[in-house]
Amino acid sequence: MSNKDTIFSAPIDKIGDFTFDERVAEVFPDMIQRSVPGYSNIISAIGMLAERFAKPNTNVYDLGCSLGAATLSMRRHMEGCEGAQIMAVDNSHAMVERCKLHLNAYRSDVHVQVIEEDIRNVDIQNASVVVLNFTLQFLSVEDREQLLQKIYDGLRPGGVLILSEKYVFENDSAHELLIDLHHDFKRANGYSELEISQKRSAIEHVMKPDSITTHRERFKALGFSSYEVWFQCFNFGSMFAIK
Known about the structure:
The protein is α/β, with parallel strands linked by helices.
């Protein structure tokens, strides 16, 4: 059972930028469930998509794996996919160490390699599935485009990129409504006004979401044969792009 997220529950004099440090790693399962609407559905469906797209003797990448929720979901659905292996990558030492513990708690025939590394430095090759689960939004725009190009180049024909993100919307009224609904979701999950406000201040300089239109334009420019939003709840969602 994970610890409860109380990181922003007391007033903070000087709020620094949000980082995936030891404190966050300790409470991350609680934080993500109470902060991201539809997160459990996304994790479950990532496993289902991996079952459909993962091919024998290929690589599957979970880039920005945090504690390994998407990796675990894919591994469960990839039993029998002979020779396929999962590369779970994160640059947070605290996340990587806990990810290893979570993976070691369950036996599987699917080999998983947990790598502590910046995802921008990872070599993508012979990939049938690549997952960016709420990861791309933390990179600069230039790095996003370079990483997506690297992923496209490393995907086999028919391979899939699964991209989960927070979204911004072109229509101001719709954008504000979806933000308000997300805050209602957090209130319903027990977060106080202080916690919502301080978390927003901490993360606004390190997470810069894109619009769905921007994601589609990138996929088109890269050459993906098909791409679409397969899940959305308020201003959070997930897309697939097939090479």
